[in-house]
Predict the structure.
Amino acid sequence: MTPPTTGQRPELMSVNRVGKVFGGATVALQDMSLTVRQGDFISLLGPSGCGKSTALRLMSGLSLPTSGAIRWAVPQEPGALGVVFQEPTLMPWATVEQNVWLPMRLRGASLSSVRGEISETLRLVGLDGFQRAYPRELSGGMKMRVSIARALVTRPKLILMDEPFAALDEITRFKLNNDLLTLQAELGCTVVFVTHSVFESVFLSDRIVVMAARPGRVLRELAVDAPYPRDESFRTSAEYAALCREASAALHDAMGEAA
Amino acid sequence: MTSLTEGSAPELVDVEERSRRRRLAFEKWGKWVLPVLVIGLGILAWHLVVTLNGIPHYILPGPVLVFETLVKDWALLLDALLITLQITLMALAIAVIGGVGLAVLFTQSRLVEMSFYPYAVILQVTPIVSIAPLIFIYVDNKMAGLLICAWIVAFFPVLSNTTLGLNSADHNLRDLFRIYGATRWQRLRYLQLPSALPYFLGGLRIAGGLALIGSVVAEYVAGTGGVGSGLAFTILEASYRLNIPRMFAALLLIAATGVVIYAGLSFLSYMLLHKWHESAIRREV
């Protein structure tokens, strides 16, 4: 059995010629178009200032586009969207369990009624048994896992991740990359992932959107055809190296144009 | 050579570790013993200065006489202490309700904040001794007047600290609350109030001391004595009669009250924060 190719999957969200201007003059994002389909793992790759975080904020609905439109193909009920920031962004006064409870608590669910779902999600991210720990007792990687569990607990259709592993050491990042792919395969969710690491984007994504800065815009879209599941052997394969070279060259073009 | 096997492994204590342990042990007892020692030496010096120089008790009473007065006048002093304590604690309670209430109102509406914050500042920067006489002209009930004075002094640190705390909630967390469709009330209850707690407790500790100062200063201004007078009036009255030992005894009680209030609020702060906030967490090394 082969997974459906990108073109056959049902559409989830379309970003149609979206632009964002700050303060009436600073063009953060220009004319971006992107179709997100269910099950996609899309990376937005680019140098700083290319508008990739702006694009993510627009997709999350936290800010409104100056021009163009973002359209959900499915009804957008609360909890359909999960977000992971660069920082773990946990509430320090709350335990791991209470932090993961947050999205459901805001919908009025009591802790006892969703404890099972919380435990299940914590198990998925490898934090079973840490329910009562406080964030300060956890390592950076573990905090990020809590943050991911919080985003996953509502079983969202779309997860937006804004350079979630940028502040972690390489060993932890590789481990989390592997686990993220396993989770995505298991839950079948759609991910849009912002990164400035070529290697990370190639390892994770089936599509890479290469962006350039000043003004922030999409330069080109690369398909990463390597089949899932990808694991450590993929990370050391010649195929991976070739794909990284290609993405690197595209990114280099982006930097060159901007400079 | 012996091998380092489990169980029989000798402790590896280097120079740095040894000095660290010595420092820890010193800090453990020094924290309590040193202040007590210094205050004891101070009292001894006071006693010696008074006795060796033969200073008369109506100029400077010795510590022994002050202690005797404290015991002899205990009934009178206790009544006064209870009055002062009552005003202080009530003022503090109203300061907390008013300060937190206004802070929440300010963060809910920029309009209200812009309109009323300047008045809070004006109340704070105007010295209480200059407002108090007016208050006692307009307010008949002396108790109510004292309470208003103490409240004016105490509420501002609660207000300004809580406002700062409510506004200092993590921006990414705010975004997250928005994405999950949190209501205004949910954001306040689950995000802003917990974020503000350490700031509020810092303000509360300052307010505790200020409430005591406010109630004492106001009583000085109010001046009239009779039934229901606090420690400030006890000091005033004793000074008219040149009863210096009683002045010292009352002063001692005011200072002790301030220390107890501060210690109590510090303990409260520790209890509420020690699980998660940096300020209350012991570092390992």
Notes: Residues 13-55 of chain B form one domain.
